[in-house]
Structure formats: C-alpha cells, structure tokens
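Second attempt. The first submission of Sugar ABC transporter permease had a stray character pasted in from the spreadsheet, which I only caught after the job came back as garbage. Lesson logged: always re-copy from the clean sequence file. Corrected sequence (319 aa) follows.
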Amino acid sequence: MEKTQLIPQKSPKSNAGNRMKNLRFEPVVFSTFNTIFMVCLVIVTLYPFLNTIAVSFNAGNDTIRGGIYLWPREWTIQNYKAVFASGTIYNAFWISVARTVISTILNLFLTTMLAYTLSRKEYVFRKHITFIFVLTMYFSAGLIPNYFLMKDLHLLNSFWVYVIPSMVSAFNMIVIRTYIGTLHESLMESARIDGAGEFKIFMKVVFPLCKPVLATIALFVAVGAWNQWFDAFIYTSSRQNLSTLQYELMKLLSSTMNSNSNPSVNNGTGMTQESVHAMVTPISIRAAVTIVASVPILLVYPFMQKYFVVGLNVGSVKE
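This time the job returned cleanly.
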C-alpha cells in the first residue's frame, strides 16, 4: 500500500498574521519609493534654475571654462551690473508692471462676464457666439493684418496696444464657463428671488465663487503679459519710453552676443561694449537676464497657489 503524505494545514491565525504583516509592509514600501521618486523629481526640476543662479553670479570669463553646477566658482555681480547699466531698464520695468496688472484685471473681469453670459441656458445666441470664439483659437489672420488693424485703431506707439488686444481670451472664457457650469443653479435662483438682476448676480454671487479658477487664469495671463516682448518690437519700437522690460533684456542680450564682432560700439551709457562686457559673456548675461525676468513672477506665485485646488463654493449648498 502506498503511503499517503499529509500536507500540514496552516491555521487561520497564521494566515491572518501574514496578511497583517503584508498590510503593514506595503505602506512602508510605497512611502519609501514615493519619497525617493519625489526627491529625484525635485532635484531634476530645481537643478536648471539653481544652475542659472550660479552662472549669473559667476565671472563671465570663468563661465566659459564650464563646470559650473550649483555654486559659483568666481563670485561677481558684474553680470547684474551689466543688466542694470542702462537707465532705460527701470522705466521698462514699470511699463511691464503696469501692463501686466492692467491686462490681468481687465482680462479677468471681461472674460468672466462673457463666460457667465454664455453659460446662461436661456441666452439663445450662446452657441453661435461660442462657436465664433472657438474659431479664433484655430484660425489667425497673421502678423500683417494684425499690424494694419492696430494702425487703423490708432494704437501704434500707444501703451494701450499692450492691453486692448488681450482683454478677452477665448481659451480662458471656455475654462471659466466650464467652472461656472459647476456652480449650483439654486444660488442664482435665490438671488433672483431676492430681486437681484443679472449684473448684481454676477458681481455678488458668481464672481466671488470663481476665485479659484480666476486665480489660475490670472497667473496664466500675468505670466504671458510679463514675458511678452514681440508686440513692443512690432508696435512701439520707435517709442523708447514705452519699451517693456523683456524687450530691453532681449536687446541687451543681442548686443552682448554681437559685442565680439564690434567691441567698440557705444551702448548708450557712456561706456563702450568692450568696457561693459570685459567681465561678462553671452552665457553669463543670459543667466542674469533669466533671473531678473523670473523673480517678479516667483514672488507672486506663492500667493496664488492656494486657490488652485480649494473651491470657495464647496459646501455652500446641500441638496
């Protein structure tokens, strides 16, 4: 007779113990892997910016040798002196600030008003107008027609050429309209019962509840207006007092890159290119220009970040 081999059975208690050990072990593995991954992601994200700061504070002639990573090898502020050597950059800075603030405020208010109008189901032309705005996202007249349009509107060599063309954005309108669609209709209905008109409903109910999406849109609009320089080159290049910071920095970078071919050209500050760029190079100037242009946005971003996720209408209506 063949002997039967008995397989020992694990007790239910031991199986439950193993499951508990696995449950306790899995969070540790996930947390460890997640922490390592996020640290690597932070390093990869921050390294280019930290390297740019290091290059901006390093001597230009030494930067050519390479090997600058996270710390300057030869400390200097000559790069920033070259950036701020021209007196026109200060006026350009305030022009950029005024342009950014005014464009952001007008874009938010007018685009939100348009989005609220097109979100009303009782408005019979909302689909047709939305279709027209969407078309502008796919088709553009081009640079030359836009130039003649600005000329016919008498906006050339005017500060308002920076503001009026960007007062309404089709993409931002769609984003805000989608957000307004998530608001409870009972909020608007209760305001109508209290006798409020559409404009009062927009100002007192809809606009405050749209703060999270408006903060996100405001950051997009502000960054776009702050970084814009091509319109200054096209529309206001003959008016030095209307030059923007980005346009002045672009001209500085171009003059630095061309200084090797013509080092004796005067830069308008009483100093020749040879004396100004004796200790700077295009690489170091580019790093300093990048930092100067980025600092204002970096200072504003932390105040806008809290609105990205949190919605003020959460919990306002329970149905």
